[in-house]
Every structure is written in structure tokens, then in C-alpha cells.
Amino acid sequence: MSYERKMFQQLAMPTRKEVEQALLRALLKHNGVIKEFGSGENIVDEIAGDFGLNDLQRSAFLETVYRKQNRVKKAYVWHRLLFRAADSLAKENLISRPTQTLQLTGKREWMLTEKGFDEALRLCKIPSSRKPYLPTKSYEVQKIVKRLIESPEPKNYDPFDRDKKIVKTTRELALRNRAFRQAVVEAYTYRCAVCGLKLQSPDSLLWEVEAAHIVPRFSFGRDDVCNGIALCHPHHWAFDVGWFTVLDDYKVQVSPRINRLPSDCGKLERFDLFRVLRSGRAKLCLPNRNEIYPHHNAIRWHRENIFYQRLL
Predict the structure, then answer these.
(1) What does the pLDDT look like over 186-197, one tens digit per residue?
(2) Cα separation, 127 vs 129, whole angstroms
(3) pTM of whole model > 0.90?
(4) What residues does each domain of the chain span?
(5) Among 41, 143, 199, 298, whose CB has the most other CB atoms within 10 angstroms?
(6) How far apart are CA 105 and CA 112, in angstroms?
């Protein structure tokens, strides 16, 4: 028995398999990414707390003697066990290694893969049907997000994807749909661009905000960030059906048909969803980078084809 395994046994540490499963559950809880297992990292203590590890189990360390260099290297037993479990998950292609994630996001983190995402959902007993709506990152989806965010905005942007297939849903399309959703809501920092609402579910798995297409999918709208706006559920619906639109200076314009609504419609208790936007001063809360602002060609199409600009 190796020195390392002997220490694991003497300290009655959790099995590697148990730690692997705990890591997958933690990754799902933390939107698909966790930092490396350094001292002081919250994730190290969080998973230790899940197992109820005592002070000795958390603070015991392994000693490796390098005789040629006349030095002794110390490593916490618990950190080593976490690394062994993560390394095993990476070998099974359930997570990406920090060196891989660094090249993709610039951060040294462990990240779920699509295979690991599916396994984490199974462990947490979450139906796979919820997968498309979760903001959880996966390595494959983040590669698409990176392309969407970093692709230069063409001067003559065409918001229509005329080759898009709307009948057949492939794995590639499913990944791209999730990438569009993640790229848009992250660009708007999980806030509604109209009212600023930012709200997460109690289990931290879902955000209220949605990624709205400006030129919608049924009109073959592209899954590009500049053809998207982050909107809360009520404002997403209102935008899709034409109650309001966006001008070239990113101000919000409300349909004059709002005047026909009964006074008790369009309200959440005392908050009026639409009439408050009629001042002409309401403006979208936009991303930090103007390269991913809603493109004028897309919002112009929405004004001309979706928005009800007449009182008739």
C-alpha cells in the first residue's frame, strides 16, 4: 500500500469515488466551474463540510522527501484527495483540466464537459429536460460562447441565417442554442436590459432573465450576441409580440396601442411594466463592450416587422 493511500485510510477519508461525485454536484451548483484546490479556496472547505471532515482530516499533510535537492515538500491530504478525484474525472472526460480551461477562458478552473454535465444532473436527480435552461457552463458550450463573443461585428451585418434548419434539432444546434443563451445573459450581467431585474432561483441553478432574439428564430434569426437582448420574462414576451421596440440610439419605444389597454392591464401590483417606459428617456442597459450591442440592422427589422407603431 502506498504512503498516500495509507494516510487516506488512517485518517478515514472519503473514498475517491465519493469525492468524484461530490465534485460533480459542486460543479453543477457553481454553474459548471470551480477553482483549483489551493489553500483558502472556498470550494475546498465547502466540500469538506459536505463530508463533515474534522480538523485533523482537513489539516493533515503528506511529506515528500527530495533527497537530491535536500528538501521536503508538504501537501494537505484533503487537497491531494480532491486532486486525485478531479484527475480521475478528467481522464473520463467528465471535466476539463485547469490547463485546458485556461486556454479557453483565461482562468485556471475545473469545468464540466457535456458528459460530466449529464452525470451531475443524474446525481442531483434533476431531469435532463431542464438542461437547456440551466446557466451551467460546459467546456463544449464555452468554446462556442468564446467564438460568439470574440467574433468581429461585420459592418453590413445580416441578422438572418438563411441556411438554418428549424425542423431537425442536432446536438450541434442544441449546443449553439445554449451558447447563445449563456453569451447573451452573461453579456448583460444576468439583468433585464429594460427594467434591470436580476434574480436567481433559491437553488442558484436558474436565472430569471432570458436571452431574447431580436430577429426571432422562426424568421431565421441568427444565434449571435448582436441579435440578442437579455430580458426578464414579462419584457421578453412584450418584445416578442411588439408592445415595445428599440431605436437606433437604444432608447425604448412603446407602442401607442398601450393607450387602449384598460388601466388594470400591464401591471404587477402597482408597478406598470410598459407605461413607465413612455417618457422617451428609457434606455437599454447595455453590455460593457459596444461590439456586442444589439445591431442596428436587427433592431430596425424588429421595428418594421414586429413592433405595433400605429394606433389602428
Answers:
(1) 999 999 999 999
(2) 5
(3) no
(4) 3-139, 154-305
(5) 298
(6) 13
